[in-house]
Automatic annotation (TrEMBL):
It comes from Rhizobium giardinii. Belongs to the ABC transporter superfamily. Its EC number is 3.6.3.-. GO terms for cellular component: ATP-binding cassette (ABC) transporter complex, substrate-binding subunit-containing; maltose transport complex. This is Multiple sugar transport system ATP-binding protein.
């Protein structure tokens, strides 16, 4: 499962309305990219879905269940942070195992899940290293591993590649797409980078000042943009 529905979701910080009211449906297994210029509300929208921010009004449903106001841990989602969110003093194994230890799973169950995540992410030979002994790409994979072991109904990524160099970004982009192909789990991926959006998404959500300008496949947006904003944004990769 991994169906996420937003109904009239509104978010204000004090007197500032950041998300005026969004309706959106994300299907199970979709790779959805939220794209738009800096400050348009991508991170806020993702954090609302994750439960890291409370909605001002509106509802969020996950697999038909109303989770509006529910704590992040109750939503069955996993947020993938940038690789610098790893614990530098812990081994790769313990970094990946961390959420399972917090959930008090027994040793053998933890070991099994960590081994499987390491296999999927090609980290089997690096489990005893510290993050500082890994490449940037390997560190990003450890951050993803920490999400995989929780077997979430959806993965949420907020610009996970923005602190990597261009070559590594390209490689990681392919790796995340390949991971989606393997797991077939819903992924929501936030970026301000049109190329990432066009190459990774099943469905792109174009945001502008907290509003959805258009939702569609990369080809839809490219060939049939609804307005000049979408045409300009998608049509002019930086
Ligand atoms: P993006 O991720 O697209 O760059 P954000 O979601 O981070 O945009 O921010 C959208 C808008 O909301 C910005 O104008 C930002 O300043 C504002 N904002 C985000 N978080 C807060 C907060 N905690 N308090 C006040 N304003 C915020
Ligand atoms: Mg952001």
């Amino acid at each position: 499962m991994g169906n996420i529905t937003l109904k009239k979701v509104n978010k204000s910080f004090g007197a500032t309305q950041v998300i005026p009211g969004i309706d959106l449906n994300i299907e199970d297994g979709e790779f959805v990219v939220f794209v738009g210029p800096s400050g348009c509300g991508k991170s806020t929208l993702l954090r609302l879905i994750a439960g890291l921010e409370d909605t001002t009004s509106g509802t969020i449903e996950i697999d038909g269940r109303d989770v509006t106001g529910a704590a992040p841990a109750k939503r069955g989602l996993a947020m993938v942070f940038q690789s610098y969110a790893l614990y530098p003093h812990m081994s790769v194994r313990n970094n990946i195992a961390f959420p399972l230890k917090m959930a008090k799973l027994d040793h053998s169950a933890i070991d099994k899940k960590v081994t499987e995540a390491a296999r999927i992410l090609n980290l089997t030979n690096y489990l005893d290293r510290r993050p500082g002994q890994l490449s940037g790409g390997q560190r990003q994979r450890v951050a993803i591993g920490r999400a995989i072991v929780r077997e979430p109904s959806a993965f949420l990524f907020d610009e996970p590649l923005s602190n990597l160099d261009a070559a590594l970004r390209g490689t990681m982009r392919l790796e995340i797409s390949e991971l989606h192909h393997q797991l077939q789990t819903t992924m929501i991926y936030v970026t301000h980078d049109q190329v990432e959006a066009m190459t990774m998404a099943d469905k792109i959500v174009v945001l502008n000042a907290g509003n959805i300008e258009q939702v569609g496949s990369p080809l839809d947006l490219y060939h049939r943009p609804d307005n000049l904003f979408v045409a300009g944004f998608i049509g002019s990769p930086r």
